[in-house]
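Amino acids appear as letters; backbone shape is given numerically. Here is one record.
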Amino acid sequence: MLGKEMNVSSAALPLVDWLEKNEGELLSVWDREWTEMLQKGDKDELETYLTDFCFSLIDLDETDQLFVAKTVFISIITDLLRVQSKKEILQPQLLQDAYTMIGQIERWQNITEYLLNIPKYVEMIVDNMLFFRPLFSTCPQLERAITFINDNITSRRLSVTLVAKHVGISTTHLSNLFRLKMDTNASEYIANRKVVEITYDIVHTSMPLAEIRKKYGFVSHSHFIQFFKRHKGKTPLKYRQHVLNMTNRED
């Protein structure tokens, strides 16, 4: 996508007109689709969304492009910090990482730098703020559960029952912890984590789909296809072809 024309025309759209033009989409899509994407933690989906957002700013002059992009990118981080603080799961190290990223955002000087840094930005949000860093010091059982899920994401035996047994609590208690702290249930969390990992292998490796299926513990090929399609809207093969087609068009 970086091959797209990035020059701003002399008749740049005034910021107030751009905001009026995009207000409906920003309010309706941001609240619904963005929240769902964050919950899934799908890096490719998040990167695509932010890339499209940055390209939507091209009608503005450079000063307004930077103002809107900086406001949105920083607000995403601060909103996540606010939610975690409200849930009492915010750790000092996470706060330091977040403000390091905000400092980097402040130094980006044009919309091209935002586009180039989207992968690093999304990695920070997903890996540090959503999934892998132990955010749950006030809830050691949930921290142990998430660590166990991440460590065993390719296991065919991975299930809510197995996680609950490892943590030493009932499945009901485990599900209640996930609903309280993560706004999702344990089975959905496991499924979303699997989808994220499977999608990465489909997009970023040349691994045959049959090998990916086996890697993540799917015995039945049809079950693998149905599982992936239910979460991504396409079969694994069509999803890979779609990404390849998008890449070819960008080149």
